[in-house]
Amino acid sequence: xxxxxxxxxxxxxxxxxxxxxxxxxxxxxxxxxxxxxxxxxxxxxxxxxxxxxxxxxxxxxxxxxxxxxxxxxxxxxxxxxxxxxxxxxxxxxxxxxxxxxxxxxxxxxxxxxxxxxxxxxxxxxxxxxxxxxxxxxxxxxxxxxxxxxxxxxxxxxxxxxxxxxxxxxxxxxxxxxxxxxxxxxxxxxxxxxxxxxxxxxxxxxxxxxxxxxxxxxxxxxxxxxxxxxxxxxxxxxxxxxxxxxxxxxxxxxxxxxxxxxxxxxxxxxxxxxxxxxxxxxxxxxxxxxxxxxxxxxxxxxxxxxxxxxxxxxxxxxxxxxxxxxxxxxxxxxxxxxxxxxxxxxxxxxxxxxxxxxxxxxxxxxxxxxxxxxxxxxxxxxxxxxxxxxxxxxxxxxxxxxxxxxxxxxxxxxxxxxxxxxxxxxxx
Length: 427
Ligand SMILES: Cc1cc2nc3c(=O)[nH]c(=O)nc-3n(C[C@H](O)[C@H](O)[C@H](O)COP(=O)(O)OP(=O)(O)OC[C@H]3O[C@@H](n4cnc5c(N)ncnc54)[C@H](O)[C@@H]3O)c2cc1C
Hints:
This protein is of the alpha+beta class and 427 residues long. The chain folds into 2 domains: 8-72 and 172-246 and 354-425, FAD/NAD(P)-binding domain; 92-168 and 248-350, D-Amino Acid Oxidase, Chain A, domain 2 (2-Layer Sandwich). The chain is 20% helix and 31% strand. Strand 19 and strand 20 (383-387) form a beta hairpin. It is globular, with a radius of gyration of 22 Å. The protein binds flavin-adenine dinucleotide. This is FAD dependent oxidoreductase domain-containing protein. InterPro entries: FAD-dep_OxRdtase (IPR006076), FAD/NAD-bd_sf (IPR036188). Pfam families: DAO (PF01266). Residues 9-407 form the FAD dependent oxidoreductase domain.
């Protein structure tokens, strides 16, 4: 490809990685009127139908991997200032901490599972909690901040803040993702509802993407492509010939609308709740739902992951009502406001996970975690991958999008050193 060849960039996946990457490409200094960028999304219902529309939305300097968090946090602040993120996607700083205590009997028989039996989403991996004294609580309940009134003091054993004020924020993931896409479209990015079935390659470089239109599942078309960016989340390993060491974990979540008079202060809680005994769960069962207060009197709560197999597309994800009921019962057992609230959404999605066990010459086998970010030349020149962001993709999307835009448009990443996340480290 010569320098004068017009760029024809196809992004596979309209989740937060695909839409944010499209946004940053459309703002890149080398983006020309002749640069064609297409976001291809398999869902019949538009962008952000997977994890990117159904996540909690926590943005934290305590996230991982470090390489991406610094640039991503800075970019989140910048994006919110530039595009009025407060009104547009619910951007705000929040308190965040680990809450430990006891759930109380709420009239229903509270069970531990299935929501109580899977693996927690592990957001707290590697997090150093700040001493609870920093919250200056006057409450007898250990460490509970004075304005965190929507969990019961008498059920609280301890609260430890995760970060200092200003180091933790939130967005509404669906609104953030769709806003990124809309802002990219304003600069000429195209959106197509269609499922990629293969990446076309010739002489060791990408030449196109073949897809089936989401609205017409019989007819195949090929879009020519000088560059292909694979951002298919949990589905990133499903295209023929592109073997990525990624897997998928399903997780359920609900949203609750507390009564209008309830005061829900801005906190995100990582709970450890010891349930009261019930006919189906033994005394002392511990569950760990995450609870996110959101602007507009909404509370989001999610449960652990399970091992349901990945379905064909995001539109085929099955929601297990029992898992949603469990999350509701668990959070209601520590909060009157959530107990009195109305459950509005019951949903499930698949988290993209990349874990590889690798042996360096003469060294022990070590486990390395994604995300994978970079050009996958082992498959083809012009094929880029941004996937495997596990439970921190909302936080790390702006850093990923900016890095991908630099790599595709300039040939190198300047905003951060992402060498450790390069595809060559994983494959
Ligand atoms: C319960 C839960 C809570 C979470 N909370 C947080 C949080 O608080 N903070 C945080 O930072 N992260 C959080 N996350 C993680 C975050 O949601 C993910 O890391 C992120 O959404 C992944 O984005 P993605 O774009 O890679 O994948 P996805 O959102 O899955 O998007 C991939 C898209 O690609 C499309 N696609 C797949 N295959 C094809 C194909 N062949 N052709 C075309 N399109 C295709 C899919 O339909 C999908 O829309 C949470 C995740 C879960 C499950």
